[in-house]
Every structure is written in structure tokens, then in C-alpha cells.
Amino acid sequence: MLYSPPLTRSRARLHGKHPSLQKSIDKLNAIYARRHRRAARACTKDNIDLESVSLKALQASSPSILNKRKRALKLSREEQAMAGAPEGNVYQVEVLERKDVPPPEAPQDDLQLVLLAAGPSAATLDWGDTYAAVDALRRLAIHSPQTLLNGGAAVLAAALQLTKEGAGSLRSSMARNSLLALEDLFDFVGGPVLGEPEVATTLVSLLLGLAGGDKKFLRGTAQSTVDALARAAPGADTVAAFVAHAEDKNTEVQAQALLRADKALEEWLGGLAPGAARRGAA
């Protein structure tokens, strides 16, 4: 069958003690039902056998099947570079993969650089200094996460501020390095870096926008970072943050949000199911 809700009512009732989760499940089911009806109409119009189309195929092709608007023409890479190139000094920087990030020689010095780049004087810094601070943060997150944790909520908030600002940069190297830094934070520092639930909600909005955006060189990195966030903060709040974007005007964002909402629900509810803890320990 084409339409298969992410979770059945009977399975959802197992977790009735989580009303916010139930609300997300209900909304997801309603969204899938509407998408199914629209797809059914489109398939009937085009003489397509509905039963032969999988849900996964529908999700993958939803922009072309469901979206009636024409896509905007894409500028060439050269035109984009000329029109959107940010001003400022020119530096040759390298975005390192995680395995290539060296350990910090002086963790406290790196920490001070992060705090400086995320503090009140951040606007006065040259972008090269800010990039160096993101590199410093990655070294700490990967090789010395306890240094960040020992700094408490203020340090973790500064780390998030630095990376959120960087992820929205017009400079591709800065944006990608900042996304990788966020992923490092989620994987090595974990849930504490997110603090309050609203923080995860804000980050989901930013990351889904990049994951479904028109900057192809950032999409894959942003998608990987979204997955890392879901691992670091499993729970009803993160699921709800994904569901909130499941009807975004951008159909690419819709697809990313639905995919991750389904995945987050399955993983989290699998962990809540009776005997899950025992299976994990076995």
C-alpha cells in the first residue's frame, strides 16, 4: 500500500503517557493522509497505478509530483560566486574532515578563542579569526569534550552561538566548517550542549533549511548534522521540531523533515518499548 502511517494507533497507545509525542504522531498521520490523497489525484490524472507506487518513492518524488509551481532557474556557480561573494580579507582555509582534526596543544587557549569569537567583541573580529575559533572548537569537541562540559552552560551556549552564526555565513568554507563543528558537538559532547528544548527547535529550523536549500555543497553536511542532533537529543521535543517543518513551503525541506520525523519516532519509541533496555545491554 502507498499510504502507511509512521506509527499505528495501537502502537502509539503504548506511549499514552507522552501527550506531546502523541500530538506529533497525529499530525504526521494527518500529513501523510493529505499527501496520499493529493498523490492519488495526481496519479489518477496521469493514469498511474497507485498500488504500485511505494511510500518511499512518493517521498522521493514529492517535489515533482505534488508541487505545481515551477522551480526557480538556478544561476551558474560562477554567477552565484560573483553575485554573493562576501566582502573582506581573503584567506586560504581548509575544511578538515573529523579524522584529520588534530588534538589541541593548549585546550584553555582554544577555549578562550571560542569565548572571544562568540562574545560581545565578535563583530569586530576578522572572519579569519572567527574561522580559527571554529577550528579550535572542533579540536576541543573531538579530543577534549570535558573541557567544554567543565565550562558549564555559558561555555556550551557560546559554542552553539559561534557555530550557528557560522553555519549561516555566505562563505562556503565557514558555513561547512561550522556545520561540522555542530556535528562534532552533538556526537562528542551530546545532549548537554543543547540545553533547553527551544535550542534544539531553533537548530532544527536552521539545519533543515540548509539540508533542503539550494546550496548543494552544504546539503549533505547539513543532513548529516541534523542526524547527529537527533541522536544527541532523542525525544518528543525533537520529533515535534521536525514535524513542525513537515508542511514547509519548500518541498525539499518538507521531504527532509518527514524523513527525519519518521526516523526519530521509530528510534525513540523503539528505545521506550518494553525490553528495549535489556536488548541493548545484551
Report on the architecture of this protein.
With 282 residues, the chain is mainly α. It has a domain at 52-152. It is 67% helix and 0% strand. It has 14 helices and no strands. Helix 6 packs across helix 8, helix 8 (152-167) runs antiparallel to helix 9 (172-189) and helix 9 (172-189) runs parallel beside helix 11 (216-232). Residues 1-15, 53-85 and 276-282 have low confidence and may be disordered.
List the helices and strands and how they pair.
Layout: H1 9-13, H2 19-45, H3 55-66, H4 77-84, H5 107-118, H6 127-143, H7 145-150, H8 152-167, H9 172-189, H10 197-211, H11 216-232, H12 236-243, H13 251-272, H14 276-281
InterPro entries: ARM-like
TL;DR?
With 282 residues, this protein is mainly α.
Give the biggest beta sheet: none
Q: How confident is the prediction overall: mean pLDDT?
A: 76
Helix content: 55-70%
Percent of residues in beta strands: under 5%
The span between the termini is: 35 Å
Q: How many whole angstroms does the radius of gyration measure?
A: 21 Å
Structural class: mainly alpha
Overall strand count: 0
- List the quaternary state of the chains: single chain
**Unreliable residue stretches:** 1-15, 53-85, 276-282
The helix count comes to: 14
Q: Could you say which overall geometry the principal axes of the C-alpha atoms support? A: globular
